[in-house]
Design brief:
This protein has 6 helices and 10 strands; from the N terminus they run ββααβαβαββαβββαβ. Helices cover about 35% and strands about 20% of the residues. A 10-stranded mixed β-sheet has the order 2-1-10-9-8-7-6-3-4-5, covered by helices on one side. The longest helix has 19 residues. The protein has about 240 residues and is an alpha/beta fold. The chain has a single domain, classed as YjeF N-terminal domain (Rossmann fold).
Length: about 240
């Protein structure tokens, strides 16, 4: 597939990257340029919350894992709660098993009194109007989805309310677009920084979020980049 396989409504091409290339982007951004994960996560969670508000009908359930993807989902929960939107979080593990940035974001939600539970059975009472946020697995998935994540994905797909995935739908190989076992089928995906090459496969709308990675990062990695963002911090992408 073409590296410039996505474009904006205005016709501007946007370079897509593989999972390995995105790891390089993250490494240069943090280790060389000095933009920290929590800064990028804040932008991701804020923009994700806007898209959730755009599609939601009533309440919101965020299904979150560990790492950057889960941390982005937890950040989104804070932004929604700050706007008095009913939101709760369901983790794929006990809260004490979170680490790094995800643990940091959980601590904030705990101080806010936002409901955070774990266990796929916590999704049992989600109804057809519940908006689901898929922040379970990030772009680094390279083998078949393992338990308990597969059960969460299966349950999310059983629900009829709108589903919004963060960065890459959980269960999808970010490079190839091939489902690695169970995979979320979202109505909308909000991908971060650059689209991933595998995002030509999932259905639903695709939006690109500006998480404030400076152009110098892409220049250092020889990734062709022209900022696609105008007045908003996101842009819709098409193939």
């Amino acid at each position: 597939m073409s590296r410039n396989s996505f474009h904006t409504a205005a016709g501007q091409s946007v370079t897509a990257v593989t999972a390995d290339e995105m790891r390089d982007v993250d490494h240069v951004t943090v280790e060389d340029v000095g933009l920290q994960l929590l800064q990028m996560m804040e932008n991701a969670g804020r923009i994700l919350a806007w898209h959730v508000r755009d599609v939601r009908e009533v309440d919101v359930v965020i299904v979150a894992g560990n790492g950057g993807n889960g941390g982005g989902g937890l950040t989104c929960a804070r932004h929604l709660a700050n706007r008095d939107i009913p939101v709760r979080v369901i983790l794929d593990r006990l809260s004490e098993e979170l680490s790094g940035a995800a643990a940091h974001q959980y601590h904030i939600l705990d101080q806010m009194g936002i409901s955070v539970t774990s266990g796929v059975e916590s999704l049992a009472d989600a109804d057809r109007q519940t908006t689901i946020v898929d922040a379970l697995i990030g772009y680094g998935l390279s083998s078949d989805v393992r338990p308990p994540a597969d059960a969460y994905i299966d349950r999310m797909n059983d629900l009829s309310g709108p589903t919004v995935s963060l960065d890459v739908p959980s269960g999808i190989d970010a490079t190839t677009g091939v489902p690695l076992g169970e995979a979320v089928a979202p109505d909308r995906t909000v991908t971060l920084a650059l689209p991933k090459t595998g995002l030509d496969a999932p259905t639903g709308e695709l939006y690109l979020a500006d998480i404030s990675i400076p152009r110098t990062v892409y220049d250092r990695l020889d990734i062709e980049y022209e900022p696609p963002f105008e007045d908003d911090d996101w842009v819709r992408l098409e193939q």
